[in-house]
Amino acid sequence: MTILHKLSSVSLRVALGGALAVALPAAIMIPAVPAAAQRADRLDEVVAALRGITTMKADFVQTDRNGQSIGGTITMKQPGRVRFEYEPSAKMLVVSNGSRLTLIDYQVNQLESWPIGNSPLGALLDPRRDVKRYGKLMPTSNPNVVSVEVKDTSKPEYGVFTMIFTRDSAAPGGLKLASWVALDAQNKRTTVRLSNHRYGVSVPDSTFTYRDPRRTTRRPR
Question: Do residues 93 and 210 make contact, with C-beta atoms less than 8 angstroms apart?
């Protein structure tokens, strides 16, 4: 079971869910670029955008396949660290320390942990390993939207992770991570939409630690 499957199955504690092109066709102005080269260039753009996020905070709304949603704040810091701080009603926390992804459930005082590579979130947290090797561009109707699907066909149990970027000059690499969709091996879908991005903020390493609920019955901070 992946962490995204676990999270999408929790009722009410749900966890891990433009401008038009100019009228004058570019082909009239410059020679056409082969489709394969365009795809490679865009994948390079995505990798550059993800690598360019030294630190980031954003608000998120996560929705499971039943339409249940919950919000919170995501904090990222390279290399590979992330914290999903859910609203208090969730009584749940998701943290990556750079190598493992951990789900802490304070409602039942349980903890589960996976290597980052075993989760579709590995595509977000380790773009050097996953995006270029397992990613492919998906068609979009807007030239300012870039969609990348990441999956390892040799390990279908890891699921499918699709990241949606929008062009934004204020974002690292000129691409803003707007949302993603995770689909696990049981076809359970989780969608996460981000807003209010803040880049280059101060994030202490202690952000990616947590209180183990199995050692105390105190409420989470």
Answer: yes
- CATH code of the domain containing 136: 2.50.20.10
* Number of other residues whose CB lies within 10 A of the CB of residue 157: 12
C-alpha 62/C-alpha 191 separation (Å) is: 6
The helix (H) or strand (E) run that includes residue 4 is helix 3-8
- Taking the C-alpha atoms of residue 190 and residue 84, their distance in angstroms, rounded to an integer, is 14
- Whether omega for the bond prior to residue 120 falls within 30 degrees of 0, making it cis, is no
Coil vs helix vs strand at 1: coil
How many domains does the structure of the chain reveal?
1
112 is in which domain, residue-wise?
A: 3-12+39-200
Looking at the predicted structure, is the pLDDT value of residue 186 above 60? yes
pLDDT band (50, 70, 90) for residue 140 = very high
Q: Distance of CA 197 to CAs 122, 160, 170, 189, Å?
A: 20, 24, 10, 24
Proportion of the chain in helix, strand, coil states, percent, rounded to 5: 25, 35, 35
The single-letter code of the amino acid at 163 is M
Q: Distances from the Cα of 16 to the Cαs of 31, 95, 194, in angstroms? A: 43, 12, 12
- Give the position of tokens 């004058």: 24
